[in-house]
Every structure is written in C-alpha cells, then in structure tokens.
Amino acid sequence: MRALIAAAAGLAAALALVLTVTATGTPEGRTSPRPLLTTVPAHP
User: Which H/E stretch holds residue 33?
Assistant: First the structure.
C-alpha cells in the first residue's frame, strides 16, 4: 500500500512540474547571430 501511495505522490509531483513549465512558456530573448564553430580552423 505504501508503494502505491509513493507512486501516486511521484506522479502528482511530475505532473505538477510539467504543468508549471508549460504555463511559464518560453523565455524571452534572442539567439546569437553568429553560428557556433563545429570544426577547428586550419593553422597557417
């Protein structure tokens, strides 16, 4: 019986976290206009 209560409490906490993140939405801001380098530049 304790395991069932613990599982229900964990599920409720996870659902509350998902709903909180969903309600806040995406943060405001911009991304950098410069792309990230994925390779090492050649040395002269």
Answer: none
